[in-house]
Amino acid sequence: GAVVSQHPSWVICKSGTSVKIECRSLDFQATTMFWYRQFPKQSLMLMATSNEGSKATYEQGVEKDKFLINHASLTLSTLTVTSAHPEDSSFYICSATGQGTLNQPQHFGDGTRLSIL
Amino acid sequence: SQKIEQNSEALNIQEGKTATLTCNYTNYSPAYLQWYRQDPGRGPVFLLLIRENEKEKRKERLKVTFDTTLKQSLFHITASQPADSATYLCALDITGHNNNDMRFGAGTRLTVKP
Predict the structure, then answer these.
(1) Are residues B100 and A46, on separate chains, in Cβ contact within 8 Å?
(2) What is the largest CA-CA distance in chain A?
(3) Chain A residues with a Cβ under 8 Å from any Cβ in chain B
(4) B23, B98, B104: best mutation site toward chain A, by most A Cβ within 10 Å?
(5) Do B100 and A104 touch (CB under 8 A)?
(6) Residue A70: strand pairing partners
(7) What share of chain A is helix, strand, coil (3-state, %, to 5)?
(8) Among A106, A110, A111, whose Cβ lies nearest the Cβ of B46?
(9) Is B107 in contact with A104 (Cβ distance < 8 A)?
(10) In A, which residues are within 8 Å of B89 by CB distance?
């Protein structure tokens, strides 16, 4: 149980393109979803936290107009990288926690490798 | 400043030995701590959670300790196997209020040689 599916797994596109990444919880309702960015051999950097039906909370230094997050249902959150540039190339990973008890583990998708040419 | 540090970027051990990974933190008072495994090109997978009032937690060949005085967690893999080779991440509850607000260490890449 507790499967999170992330799509696409990789994408290559031209500079200036907007890219949408989907994160779905397949067998549980995700009260909270998290979006991370990871550079090679570095830690997961939290970008934003989103709760279903409310606006995402962005971490300091993350441009909310650049990285649009929508969490419209308990099973789907999307991250849109708007007008992407080469410096946005990275590995983006989502995770989700379900309803119920506190201090739950996060269930991660397998990430999206984004390459901007 | 607040930090989460995992002792080394890489750790190489021989099959059958015990791997010990360290997670140190400063200026946090976590209510709990988690360990995850991440394979290349994949998302992390949850392994164990240990709460501040627990000294030790075990799951099969895995053992985690949590010392809130030293501000340190140790993660042990006994009888290690090549299949245990991966990057291991510790994650802290940074608010101390059990509300799933976690931050991750950079990870330790473990290689178990046959």
Answers:
(1) no
(2) 43
(3) 4, 6, 32, 41-44, 46, 49, 93, 95, 97, 102-111, 113
(4) B104
(5) yes
(6) A78
(7) 5, 55, 45
(8) A106
(9) no
(10) 43-44
User: Could you tell me the pLDDT band of residue A43, with boundaries at 50, 70 and 90?
Assistant: confident
The string of pLDDT tens digits covering residues A62-97 is 999 999 999 888 899 999 999 999 999 999 999 998
Q: Do A103 and B31 make contact, defined as CB atoms within 8 angstroms? A: yes
Model confidence at B98, pLDDT cuts 50, 70, 90, reads low
Report the C-alpha gap between A31 and B91 in whole angstroms. 20
CA A28/CA A1 separation, integer angstroms: 8
Q: What is the predicted pLDDT for the residue at A54?
A: 83
> How many other C-beta atoms lie within 10 A of the C-beta of residue B86?
20
CB-based burial label for A100 (10 Å; 0-12, 13-18, 19+) = exposed
Residue A103 and residue B101: Cβ atoms within 8 Å? no
pLDDT at B49: 93
Kindly report the CA angle at B98 between B108 and B61, in degrees rounded to 5?
40
Output the 3-class SS for B4-32.
EEECCCEEEEECCCCEEEEEEEECCCCCE
- DSSP 3-state assignment of B45? strand
